[in-house]
Specification:
The complex is a heterodimer.
Chain A lengths: L17 H21 L6 H4 L1 E7 L6 H10 L6 E5 L1 E9 L5 H4 L2 H13 L4 E8 L1 H29 L2 H24 L6 H31 L5 H33 L5 H28 L4 H4 L5 H7 L2
Chain B lengths: L5 H18 L6 E9 L7 H14 L5 E5 L3 E5 L3 H14 L4 E9 L3 H5 L6 E2 L1 H4 L1 E8 L1 H22 L6 E5 L2 E6 L2 H14 L4 E7 L2 E7 L2 H24 L7 E5 L3 E7 L4 H9 L1 E9 L5 H5 L7 E5 L5 E11 L3 E8 L6 E7 L1 H13 L4 E16 L2 E17 L7 E4 L5 H13 L6 E9 L1 H55 L2 E2 L1 H30 L4 H33 L2 H33 L10
Parallel strand pairs in B: 5-22
Antiparallel strand pairs in B: 1-3, 1-4, 2-3, 6-12, 6-21, 7-8, 8-10, 9-10, 11-12, 13-15, 13-18, 14-15, 16-17, 17-20, 18-19
Classes of the chains: A alpha+beta, B alpha+beta.
Chain lengths: 315, 618
């Protein structure tokens, strides 16, 4: 072999598997949607409101002692956990009823912890989000997803045609539900950075889908023979090695981000890792199948020929 | 075939060189520094530099450099943060009355880089450490206050006009006046309508009693809200400036929120105390009949009180207040039309204006003083327990002679400089919070966590980049190396654009850069796969290169535009760190299109273009 290549002239029949894929995806979608509806999300501070305090100890800290000390001072609901290392402790407090005091909670907690530890506890981070702000951020997040879907739908509909746009959007919804569904099932904390990752997943998944749609359009124009299914299959195969290489390089950097980027953006990396894998799958099995199911045909994709040009071409 | 014209190669080269130059400042270390600005009524000049240098020398604090910057401030650089803190102590102990000092970090750039205005990236609070606070302004309270004010004014007005009413009360967001008979009611309605044209006046009758209701029309309500927000921002800005933090950000966010960001600040408790303080202003006549010395000796005359001026000089004022700060509706700085000396123009509301006119008519050519009163709650440790106390400070900020009777709008002259006029106008406007505030969001990041975030982010960019570079080189050989080279150039360009725009780089922003590294090679992958396909289809190497770039172009553009849409939506809906992610994603997509399409083509053309090629190393 002269050079490394993942795929040569491959001709895998992806489209014939579209029913199996649709059923499998459909079943999983139901599971994820149920989980989202029933279990909901392990929303982070950004969306629930409350206070998160990250402190750094000079020695590894004992969580039980910290929890006890906080409970003694009336913080019964404090959730105490390690964050990254045993010297790093994260304390989560639910929103308080009395609004006035909540902004000052962090000062109190740090005082309690310093007394309990008998050494200087370093305040690494405090985040306080009022309940009202949490609600707004939730609402804005939903709107952001909705608006990017609409924007993309319009662009794809203009550049291609509506069947492709519908296929792309179904694939995107599929990817989003898979990503957030896994967050719901495994109760992975869902915060603002995860939401940003979900929007990036939308962008990525579409990127992938468009590459294949582009090829389908090109092949429709170039290949005079062949059924819609044959052409779709051929297009997927032609772009397969690109699909795998790009997903691969993106996954490489995401893994670097997950393992080295620190605890603060691990949720972000997880969401994108899921999204890239699922997005690659959905591009091949969902988006194209959907467009075929909606009935794309050669005539829909031939270039719109202007009348003037026709006249000029006449001999 | 496959030959770029010279101008195109030069253009690409120029962009890359510019990118390298503009990204350069990020490589220089940051000096711990003190930013020095002049206090009210003082100026920064060449003498200040020498004076401050001398102060450090006398105290034995080694200073690296003292330089003057644009906008009338100085920067003192130190070699370590320990020396920086010692320097701050020197400034506060010896020169605090004339200079205000704030800790900051400043890149140690060589002169020629500074001369072209190059700056390193602007780091967000999650990377450099600091306090972010989101403040909600209680608009309902602001409106209620406005209606309450009208309630009092209407009562006074009716009494003055000798119109008999039963009650004048605030009912929700309306003023309601009750009368026994219709004739009086109608007379009052006419009067209120004339005296308070801003109010919507309505009459009604219930259970044999007659009512006039006055309410704020929508436009007026908006005005009250806008004013409350603006005034609170000005007030908070003044207070934050007193904290001694370099580059504070105080911005309006939406209809009723204010964002305060203090890079590098580490004491959220102090900030919260300061933000919550309330303050007001009073105009009083100066007591010229009695001696200040007597009062200082303990014989304060009846009806007068001893105050201190800003420079510490004692002054005797009459106890009677002419006008208080909440009667000031606006203040601005300008110049006196006759003498051209700096002045402050103050606008009063109706009742305040009337009172001011009466008092000043009787006291022409006598001096009048403006007293600044501030209440703030301070938490002190008493016997190991925190105790909250309220502190009240009163300070005479201005004394000026009454030249003629004042009306609704008047000017105060006798100020030292136009800068002082500005400060005074600001203080007058910012005197009190126009509406109560509440902190609804707070994010404080300690300096060590910020540094950790930078290190971790940097590491993941490097490792991710290394992995992608290795893969591309193995998989696409020479073409892969070209892709690697342009990927590195792409990173440099992202850093350069971020530095030029001074867009805030956050931790999610770094994640965006990492993601861009992964996705930026996509364009090259698309092109290279096309070239391989063309070769398989039997095209010549040169034709394959040409066709590969040509055919992949529209796909690359389509794919990137959709990601751009997602980035734009993220930017418009996101706040803080998320915006940072959107910015780097957006910039990354644009620069990667440039480097992956034009940059890589230029290189490939230089390697293969214009000669006979049998095989391609792809």
């Amino acid at each position: 072999m002269a050079h490394a290549q993942l795929t040569k002239e491959l001709n895998i029949d992806f489209i014939s598997k579209r029913k199996i894929a649709a059923m499998g995806s459909g079943a999983l979608m139901v599971v994820f949607l149920l989980s989202i509806l029933v279990r909901g999300f392990n929303f982070g501070l950004d969306f629930t409101g409350g206070t998160v305090i990250e402190v750094g100890y000079q020695q590894p800290a004992e969580l039980a002692g910290v929890t006890q000390a906080l409970a003694d001072e009336g913080f019964n609901d404090a959730v105490v956990q390690y964050f990254g290392s045993r010297q790093d402790v994260l304390i989560r407090l639910a929103p308080r009823d009395e609004d006035v005091a909540s902004a000052e909670l962090s000062d109190q907690v740090l005082r309690i912890l310093t007394q309990q530890a008998g050494e200087d506890v370093e305040l690494r981070r405090v985040e306080f989000v009022g309940p009202q702000v949490g609600e707004e951020l939730r609402e804005q997040g939903g709107l952001a997803v909705l608006f990017s879907l609409i924007g993309i739908l319009i662009y794809v509909a203009l550049r291609f045609e509506w069947r492709f746009a519908a296929g792309a959007v179904v694939a995107i919804i599929h990817d989003v539900v898979f990503t957030i569904g896994l967050f719901s099932i495994f109760a992975i904390p869902f915060d603002l950075t995860v939401l940003a990752a979900v929007l990036a997943v939308i962008g990525y998944s579409l990127n992938d889908t468009i590459v294949i749609f582009d090829r389908i359009r090109e092949n429709f124009r170039k290949m005079r023979k062949g059924t819609v299914i044959e052409i779709a299959n051929r297009s997927i195969n032609q772009t397969l090695s690109r699909t795998i290489v790009t997903s691969g390089t993106t996954l490489l950097v995401l893994l670097a981000l997950y393992f080295l980027g620190g605890a603060a953006i691990s949720g972000f990396s997880i969401a994108l890792i899921i999204g890239v894998v699922v997005g690659t799958y959905s591009t091949i099995f969902i988006a194209t199948a959907m467009a075929i199911w909606l009935g794309i045909s050669r005539t829909d994709l031939l270039p719109a020929v202007k009348e003037g040009e026709l006249l000029d071409d006449r001999p | 075939m496959n030959h770029y014209p010279l101008w195109k190669n030069l253009l690409i080269l120029a962009v890359i060189l510019a990118g390298l130059l503009l990204a350069l400042p990020n490589l220089f270390s940051q000096d711990p520094s003190i930013e020095i600005t002049a206090e009210r009524g003082n100026q920064i000049n060449d003498a200040s530099v020498a004076e401050i240098r001398a102060a450090f020398e006398n105290a034995g604090v080694p200073v690296k450099d003292v330089e003057s910057l644009e906008g009338d401030h100085l920067l003192a650089r130190f070699r370590s943060s320990g020396e920086q803190l010692a320097g701050l102590e020197v400034m506060q102990n010896t020169l605090a009355d004339r200079y205000r000092s704030a800790l900051t970090l400043s890149p140690d750039l060589p002169g020629w880089l500074k001369a072209i205005g190059a700056q390193p990236m602007f780091l967000g609070l999650d990377l450099r450490g600091g306090i972010h606070v989101l403040i909600d302004v209680d608009m309902e309270a602001a409106l209620a206050q406005a209606v309450e004010r009208y309630t009092g004014d209407i009562r006074t007005e009716l009494r003055k006009a000798k119109i008999r009413y039963v009650t004048v009360l605030r009912e929700g967001d309306k003023v309601e006046v009750r009368f026994r008979d219709e004739a009086t009611r109608d007379q009052a309605a006419k009067r209120i309508h004339r005296e308070f044209p801003n109010l919507t006046v309505e009459t009604s009758e219930r259970e044999g009693e007659f009512y006039v209701t006055g309410s704020l029309p929508p436009a007026q309500r908006e005005e009250v809200k806008r004013f409350a927000l603006q005034q609170n921002i000005t007030t908070l800005r003044n207070r934050v400036n007193a904290l001694g933090v370099a580059e504070p950000i105080i911005q309006r966010q939406g209809e009723r929120r204010i964002v305060v960001q203090l890079p590098g600040a580490q004491d959220p408790g102090r900030l919260k105390e300061l933000l919550g303080a309330t303050a007001t202003l009073e105009y009083r006549l100066v007591d010229t009949e009695h001696s200040v010395q007597d009062a200082l000796d303990g014989r304060v005359p009846v009806g007068a009180a001893l105050y201190k001026k800003r420079d510490g000089q004692p002054i005797l004022l009459k106890r009677r207040v002419i006008v208080t700060g909440d009667q000031i509706t606006d203040a601005s700085a300008g110049f006196d039309q006759q003498s051209g000396s700096p002045a402050v123009f103050v606008s009063l509301d109706g009742p305040g204006a009337r009172r001011m006119r009466n008092v000043t008519t009787e006291n022409v050519s006598k001096p009048m003083a403006v007293v600044f009163i501030e209440n703030r709650s301070v938490t002190r440790m008493v016997d190991g327990k925190p105790v909250k106390t309220r502190e009240r400070t009163e300070e005479v900020i201005s004394v000026a002679n009454i030249l003629e009777p004042f009306g609704r709008r008047f000017q105060t002259t006798g100020l030292d400089s136009s800068e002082e006029a500005h400060t005074l106008a600001l203080l007058l406007r910012a005197g009190a919070l126009a509406a109560p505030i509440e902190i609804v969001e707070e994010r404080t990041v300690g300096p060590s966590l910020g540094q950790d975030n930078i290190d971790q982010g940097f590491e993941s960019v490097l490792i991710g980049l290394a992995a992608v570079v290795a893969f591309m080189a193995l998989y696409y050989r020479l073409f892969g190396l070209v892709a690697d080279l342009v990927l590195v150039v792409n990173l440099v360009l992202i850093v350069a654009v971020l530095s030029v725009l001074q867009a805030t780089l956050t931790l999610p922003g770094i994640a965006g850069i990492v993601l861009t590294v992964g996705m930026a090679v996509d364009a090259n992958v698309l092109i290279f796969e096309r070239i391989r396909e063309e070769i398989r289809n039997g095209s010549s190497p040169q034709a394959s290169i040409h066709a590969g770039y040509d055919k992949a172009l529209s796909t690359i553009v389509d794919a990137n535009v959709t990601t751009l849409i997602a980035a734009v939506v993220l930017f418009s809906f996101g706040t803080g760190p998320i915006k940072g992610f959107a910015v780097t994603l957006f910039i990354g997509i644009l620069t990667s299109m440039f480097t992956a399409i034009l940059g890589s083509r230029a290189l490939i053309n230089l390697i293969y273009g214009g000669r006979r090629v049998k095989t391609l190393a792809i």
